[in-house]
Amino acid sequence: MKSHSIPKTLSRIRKIVLQETGQDLSRHALREIEAELVATDIHKQVEENSDFQAREVTILLADLRGFTAIAAEFPAGTVIRMLNPLLIRMSEIIFKHGGVIDKFMGDAIMVLFGALTKRDDDVARALACAVEMQTKMQELNIEHRRQSLPELYMGIGINTGEVLAGVLGSDVYSEYTVIGDEVNLASRIEAFSLRGQILISNSTFENCRDFVETSEPMIVHVNGKSQTVSVREVLSIPTKGLKVPRQEIRRSHRVEVRLPFSYQLIRSGIVQPELLQGVIHDIGYHGVLVQLATPQPPMTEMKISVDLSHVCYLAENIYGKVVNQKTRDERMLTGVEFTSVPPSVNTKIQLFVQMLVFSD
């Protein structure tokens, strides 16, 4: 979290360098210095808040969808070339909105609002931050397409509640963090989010209902909770002119098919051994409309395998999540949106769809 003194300090450093060398600092150098100032400022605040205290915070968890599959298919150098600029740009947005990066967890980021310094608009800051992060993801994907790199998608979950905040560790290593059930709930909500989506808890919504436009509440079952949890999808922040670009990402050709497929349900993050059979009735780049052996509730996760006969390819390791159900010709059909698809499989799915579209 940047204090008001950091921009002034950065400006002073630029003037001194310009006076001494006759040249201004490069953008890269400015970012390096600003990052160091921010780190120093946060460290100072951490020392002042070293004892564990109960605080109401807003927790933002963001995770890349399908990045494990991408990392397995591309050289390490290419993976870093994709991940590092993304984390830099996400960090800039987070600092802009006054968030504190609690930790990077591989391809995931945990951000806190209100942990070190409480503001009346912490929830609004977190929501604006999340929408701008998704907008930036869309811009990054435009760059990736130009560079023939795979597109990346992020799911975001936000929760507001009371946690214990303080420093964990010893003199050898320590860090400021938050612990408690509200952190776990934020993680569970993030796990339900689809690519490009922002989901918020009911407590977050109650703190910002006049600030944000959302979907109707969705009821989900969360591990460790005896009662169901209500979540909402963030659509836009009208007063700031911000809109989540996810609806545009979802657009693609869709074609009707009758395609047998196999699937396994995922319970508590574990792929179940039973192999079930279903029929795909409609397929697009990002999802399918299917008839399952047994209807499944929204947010159910599954692992899919399907033989794409037109392109002579067995598409495997496709992960999806149930998003809706509808009745068609007296059949119960289930909409499944892909959450993780290996890049090579994604290419074949798009080719398969395009061949069917243009063969009509």
Structure description:
The chain is of the alpha+beta class and 360 residues long. It contains 9 helices and 17 strands. Strands 1, 2, 3, 4, 5, 6, 7, 8, 9 and 10 form a 10-stranded mixed β-sheet that branches. The chain has a 6-stranded antiparallel barrel with strand order 11-13-14-17-16-15.
CATH architecture of the largest domain: 2-Layer Sandwich
Q: Give average pLDDT, whole number.
A: 84
Query: Number of helical segments?
Result: 9
CATH topology of the largest domain: Alpha-Beta Plaits
User: How big a fraction of the residues is strand?
Assistant: 35-45%
Provide the CATH top-level class of the largest domain: Alpha Beta
Shape: globular
Largest sheet report:
10 strands, mixed
Binned, the helix content reads 25-40%
CATH homologous superfamily label of the largest domain: Nucleotide cyclase, GGDEF domain
Rg calc: 23 Å
Unreliable stretches, pLDDT < 50, 5 or more residues? none
Order of helices and strands: HHEHHEEHEEHEHEEEEHEEEEEEEH
Count the domains.
2
CA-CA gap between termini: 56 Å
Class per helix and strand makeup:
alpha+beta
- How many individual β-strands? 17
